Structure formats: C-alpha cells, structure tokens
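Q: What changes when protoporphyrin IX containing FE is included in the input?
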Amino acid sequence: MELSKIFLPVILFVLTLGFGLWLSLSGKPYSGWPFNIHKLLALGAVILAGLQVYSLMSGPSPQGWLFVLIVVATLCTVTLFASGAFLSIGNWNAQMLLNIHRIAIAMAIICVAAVITLLSRKVL
Ligand code: HEM
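A: The predicted holo structure follows.
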C-alpha cells in the first residue's frame, strides 16, 4: 500500500508536537537539546512529507481541494518555521508568536489529515 509511505513523516510530526509541548512546559530560556530536537524533527517531517506527497501525486498536477490544501499546508509550515525562529530569538511579543505557532499547528493538522484522506481515495 503506497500510503504507508506517509507513516514516517506522520510519526516525525507527532514527535515534533511532543517535543514542542515539552519545550513550552519547560519554559524559558529554552533548553538546548529539546529545542534542537524539536527543530530537527520539524525539518525532517517537512522534507519527508514533501517528498512522499510529491511521489504519491503521480499523474496530473493536483487540482481543486487537493491543490488548495497543499498550498495552505505549505503556508502553515512557513509560518511555523518563522514564528518558531522569532520565538527563539525572543525580542518579539512571545504570546502573539505562540498564538500564531498554535493556529498554524491546528491548521496544518487539519490540512495534512485532509490531504491524506484525498490521496488515500486516489491511491487505495
Ligand atoms: C512542523 C513544524 C512544527 C510543529 C508541528 C511545532 C509544534 C509545536 C508545539 C505543539 C509547541 C507547543 C505549543 C504550545 O505550548 O501549545 C511548539 C512550541 C515551540 N516551537 Fe514549534 N513546531 C514546529 C516547528 C518549529 C520550528 C521550526 C521552531 C524553531 C525554529 C519551533 C520553535 C518552537 C518554540 C521556541 C516553542 C516554545 C514556545 C513557548 O511555549 O515559549 N517550532 N511547537
């Protein structure tokens, strides 16, 4: 089943969420290794997800809802990396950045779940 390719990025994404919560709960200043693991897991999840979604979309380029969802998920990812970077620099309004990080996480989860559902209908 081709869709099993999505499992590894999903596991990395869930681990990213876990380390993000740990980071939030442990407070500032952010401890070095959970922060680095959070960033590296996020990077790994995004690269793997991008590669796997690309390889699952064999045939014509995505259209309709699939296209919209992939664009929104990409914008959420950019927002996550930007808000995460500004949170770590620490000279912006932290609460506002954390809210942006949280909204982008929620939207990314919805989009990724919807993309997986649409792709599974095509692939299975
Ligand atoms: C796929 C990408 C990412 C996901 C899913 C993610 C997820 C999370 C989650 C769930 C939290 C806990 C938020 C809360 O308390 O409700 C968090 C916190 C945090 N994340 Fe991320 N994150 C991602 C990428 C990044 C990146 C790339 C960076 C840094 C460049 C980053 C920096 C931070 C920081 C600094 C916090 C702690 C905020 C605080 O409570 O003060 N994140 N992240």
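Observations recorded in class: The CA atoms of residues 83 and 97 lie 6 Å apart.
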